[in-house]
Amino acid sequence: MYDDDVWVGLDLGTQGVRALAVTDDGQVRGRGSAPLTGHRDGDRHEQLPADWWTAATAALRRTLREVPAARVRGIAVCSTSGTVLLTDAEGTPLTPALMYDDSRAAAEARHAQETSADVWRSLGIRIQPSWALAKLLWLTGAGQGEAAAGGSADPARLRGARVCHQADFVTGRLVGHRVATDSSHALKTGYDLLTRTWPTAVHDRLGLSGLDFPDVVAPGAPLGTVGREAAEATGLAEGTPVVAGMTDGCAAQLGSGAWEVGQWNSVLGTTLVLKGVTASPLHDPAGVVYNHRSPDGNWLPGGASSVGAGILTRTFPGADLGQLDQRAAAREPASTVAYPLVSRGERFPFLAPGAEAFVLRTPADDADHHAALLQGVALTERLCLAYVRMLGAPVEGPVTFTGGATRSAYWNQLRADVLGRAAAIPELTDPALGMAVLAAYGVRGGGPVARGMVRIRTTLEPRRDHHDRFTEAFGTLVDELERRGWLPPETAAYARTEG
């Protein structure tokens, strides 16, 4: 038993819910998780919202087994970006939840983009099939093309239905009544972060004005306190503050310690996400970079690429990746250049729905192939960083690495070498840590204590001679992406100067 204040972060993922209980100085006092399942079929990916609450209560109870409930000073929740459902006024689901990567709403995304292109252009965003706004059109049958057949069988019963993001469902259960959403989760539902309003004129054009869109607050704002029923279910004390969270990508950034203008966090898991901090929104005419709002008022621009570590297990199922890493260290550079997309289509640093993975020449052996994939991800990461610099973003200090790929010490050093930048790796890379940080920030009303919760495990310095080894490979990748018509010429030209 102990007297430290504890902050709880809850991360609603795809395959499970994870929770952390963390002290002001970053010590983990408790952790817990519970699995989630869903239904996947082609472009379809759904989960039952009730399962989120069941898994959340289990994860919290496991986390708090040895933590005095009275010492928990606050909790925040993050979830997958773009996951949405409709509920009634009491919060009972009227539809299944369409998950972040459900892409059935392609026709609806095109309709939303074309109907209000002027609005999205001013906001610097492009509506995509995975975005919650397109999914609302699909759910209500208010879109075009296949929407009437694919969406709700009875649109009339959804009139007045409440728009609910994944985190909203759980925070509402914690508090015991409907709550506001946060601006981070609301972004892909079309929320205007500049005016801090819902675009009601757009809703009218799209036929969504009959839906009940929630109030929106800044991340870290108070939503209420844990109610009696939730306290009994979770082990939290009744009256514990609940603060508004952020999406999982933003949560990972908060947990990385990248809070200051010019700092960037690269999250490498199944795919690659790059997020940074700027004093003003980063305008991208192509719409592949979009901006979240930081709890402290700065902006968090970033984008998600479809390259990533997911290509490794797909290419070498059941292989000892650690052993392949050791063999790959002797192949710098590999005999070929790879563009290791995990799935068809690219979103960042360029938009190319038809883009496909490629390897330019036949690798000499498995070690050479593995090396090419590792290097291909790092080269694409370098291209992403060049793109945000081209848009005018400051890039200062070390880039922070988080995500599951940080388990590979070799890949961490390779990425630092290819980027030519120092890389800081925190002790914890879990989005739940970011939510514990945000809970402390929201309740305490400031950043110094919250920033002290992030512990850096190591900082890697780039090796200049190793960086130079990849100059030719980087140029080859840029040339090939441009030749295929995916990478715009102006971006390719800038990247070559940055190489």
TrEMBL record:
Residue ranges constituting the Carbohydrate kinase FGGY N-terminal domain according to the UniProt record = 6-255
Q: Which residues form the Carbohydrate kinase FGGY C-terminal domain?
A: 266-442
Key word Transferase present in the record? yes
Output one GO BP term: D-xylose metabolic process
Which residues lie within the region annotated Disordered? 26-45
- Any idea which UniProt keywords this protein has? Carbohydrate metabolism, Kinase, Transferase, Xylose metabolism
Molecular function as annotated in GO: kinase activity
Q: Which Pfam families match?
A: FGGY_C, FGGY_N
Q: Which InterPro entries match?
A: ATPase_NBD (IPR043129), Carb_kinase_FGGY (IPR000577), FGGY_C (IPR018485), FGGY_Carb_Kinase (IPR050406), FGGY_N (IPR018484)
SUPFAM superfamilies of this UniProt entry?
Answer: Actin-like ATPase domain
Give the stretches traversing the membrane: none
Determine if Transport is one of this entry's keywords.
Answer: no
Q: Which PANTHER family does the record associate with it? A: SUGAR KINASE, XYLULOSE KINASE
Similarity-based family: Belongs to the FGGY kinase family.
Output this protein's name. Carbohydrate kinase
Question: What is the originating organism of this protein?
Answer: Streptomyces liangshanensis
Biological classification of the source: Bacteria, Bacillati, Actinomycetota, Actinomycetes, Kitasatosporales
